[in-house]
């Protein structure tokens, strides 16, 4: 799967470059079995991001409580995320708040 994602990221790289990162992304998910394990989600997401070595690769993270915790950490560490499994406004707000906290931590670092 990782080789396919690298190839897809390479196909979309010109779009990513031309739009300064607004478009041209591909996405790879962490194991759904990790939906309730923030620490392992972070570890797997970081590993996938590093192994893929493509700037236009999102890592899909579920919008579960553990996923929200992972989102903050991943954004802080510079790993782009695509949040999935958001079914109501409460989950969306929690994910957005985690994203913003991660950005604040990254800017303060």
From TrEMBL:
Which class of enzymes does this protein belong to? transferase
Q: Where in the cell is it found?
A: Cytoplasm
Query: Keyword set for this entry?
Result: Cytoplasm, Pentose shunt, Schiff base, Transferase
A single GO CC term, please?
cytoplasm
Q: In which pathway does it act?
A: Carbohydrate degradation; pentose phosphate pathway
Question: Which positions carry the signal peptide feature in this UniProt record?
Answer: none
Which GO molecular-function terms appear in the entry?
A: transaldolase activity
The answer to whether UniProt assigns keyword Transferase to this entry is yes
Q: Does the keyword Heme apply?
A: no
Pfam families found in the cross-reference section: TAL_FSA (PF00923)
Q: What is its EC number?
A: 2.2.1.2
The cross-references to InterPro entries, in alphabetical order and at most eight, read: Aldolase_TIM, TAL/FSA, Transaldolase_2, Transaldolase_AS
- Which reaction is recorded as catalysed by this protein? D-sedoheptulose 7-phosphate + D-glyceraldehyde 3-phosphate = D-erythrose 4-phosphate + beta-D-fructose 6-phosphate
Q: Name one GO biological process term.
A: pentose-phosphate shunt
The function of this protein is: Transaldolase is important for the balance of metabolites in the pentose-phosphate pathway.
- Family under the similarity heading: Belongs to the transaldolase family. Type 2 subfamily.
Protein name as it appears in the record: Transaldolase
């Amino acid at each position: 799967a990782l080789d396919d994602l690298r190839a897809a990221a390479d196909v979309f790289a010109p779009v990513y470059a031309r739009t300064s990162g607004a478009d041209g992304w591909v996405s790879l998910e962490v194991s759904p079995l990790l939906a309730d394990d923030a620490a392992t989600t972070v570890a797997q997401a970081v590993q996938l991001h590093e192994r893929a070595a493509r700037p236009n690769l999102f890592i899909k993270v579920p919008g579960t409580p553990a996923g929200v915790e992972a989102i903050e950490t991943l954004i802080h560490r510079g790993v782009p995320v695509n949040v999935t499994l958001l079914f109501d406004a409460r989950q969306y707000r929690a994910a957005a708040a985690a994203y913003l906290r991660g950005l604040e931590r990254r800017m303060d670092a």
